[in-house]
Amino acid sequence: xxxxxxxxxxxxxxxxxxxxxxxxxxxxxxxxxxxxxxxxxxxxxxxxxxxxxxxxxxxxxxxxxxxxxxxxxxxxxxxxxxxxxxxxxxxxxxxxxxxxxxxxxxxxxxxxxxxxxxxxxxxxxxxxxxxxxxxxxxxxxxxxxxxxxxxxxxxxxxxxxxxxxxxxxxxxxxxxxxxxxxxxxxxxxxxxxxxxxxxxxxxxxxxxxxxxxxxxxxxxxxxxxxxxxxxxxxxxxxxxxxxxxxxxxxxxxxxxxxxxxxxxxxxxxxxxxxxxxxxxxxxxxxxxxxxxxxxxxxxxxxxxxxxxxxxxxxxxxxxxxxxxxxxxxxxxxxxxxxxxxxxxxxxxxxxxxxxxxxxxxxxxxxxxxxxxxxxxxxxxxxxxxxxxxxxxxxxxxxxxxxxxxxxxxxxxxxxxxxxxxxxxxxxxxxxxxxxxxxxxxxxxxxxxxxxxxxxxxxxxxxxxxxxxxxxxxxxxxxxxx
Length: 481
Description:
Layout: H1 3-26, H2 32-37, H3 44-55, H4 58-71, H5 78-104, H6 109-116, H7 121-155, H8 159-207, H9 211-221, H10 234-245, H11 255-262, H12 267-298, H13 311-319, H14 322-359, H15 366-389, H16 395-419, H17 425-444, H18 447-450, H19 455-480
Helix pairs in contact: 1-8, 1-14, 3-8, 3-11, 3-12, 3-14, 4-12, 4-14, 5-12, 5-16, 6-7, 7-8, 7-14, 7-15, 7-16, 7-17, 8-12, 8-14, 8-15, 13-14, 14-15, 16-17, 16-19, 17-19
GO molecular function: proline:sodium symporter activity; sodium ion binding
Transmembrane segments: 6-25, 75-94, 124-142, 162-179, 191-216, 236-254, 275-299, 319-347, 368-389, 395-419, 426-444, 450-469
Keywords: Amino-acid transport, Cell membrane, Ion transport, Membrane, Sodium, Sodium transport, Symport, Transmembrane, Transmembrane helix, Transport
């Protein structure tokens, strides 16, 4: 049996496993709470790993590896930035959000905000749904495009065939099993990701002689590769560090991550998930970084003639037996598919639950709500596949601000709503609108390249807007009351 055939069989088995999990989840899906939150039944391991896998798309196994390859040791600053975001989410947001959403019966993030501030419920739902759809619609399509490229690189399938195959699998298991299927498959895919990003870096480090020789040889190639500042100083260094560490600000505002905490079976499960998720994050982030550093020595040609983001699949094919390489390459698909299914379900939930059901009042029964959710998954999934097949490259522009837009729009509001009684409905609405608007304006005016990454300033201005409007409303209420 040839290497390509073996790899193809491994990936086929992986796809079959995803469909099986979707089918099993569908058998347990009977109510809106089942479809949108898995009946609030997630255990500690599924909560931990599905939430982390959902937040880390192909940028970890491809982008972060390539970033470390090109930037050297200084690129590893992204890891503490992300891990601080994990700490905030797991130890602050998760326990409080799980408690509040269970008490109110909220099934989505817009649901939670509407129940928390009933005087502005309709406006908050509309604004939240608009931000979610604008951020995730293009992102899902771009992830479908990434799926097609991965299928092309791994299996040699034509680009469009890869999109259709990957998109069909994603839509089918999300459509059938809803949140439970997405959580189970994300858990499965998260395990594959962490195994790959521990195994491959260890092999790569061994191939270059260990950590010490790695740094010595990198310094011979270019001294800036072993500098923690990357050769930057002054304002350039400050902007670089703020941007890298500021990535973590996005985590409290990602709906496809926060819903995992809302779906946890109990506070105890949240507590147990904290250590699991943190260990997963450390292994994945630093694994990706060290793989990129070692890969700079193992495949130096990518620095001048090639794409450093293809380092992972190239090393897997060249260093591993076909069967093991197939598992490692499935990790790339896992990283992409775990995120796209989560984002697809969040976008569909916002459309069916918050827009169609709550704002428009079009569905009221449990069966109708589940049907609306499934139809939304089908419609949005097929639309994303069609956009990707048509190679509409503008969708990648959405990817650039999707994480920042969601993080700035929802992060300050979620944190304030959980830990401050001073936030008002108007303040929450102002924070959502300001965070998203500043993200877009910062990006389109080029300030992201000239000054710093857009998330920190957008997050700060959203928090300021929420505070100012809340203070104004409270003072107005006091003087008129």
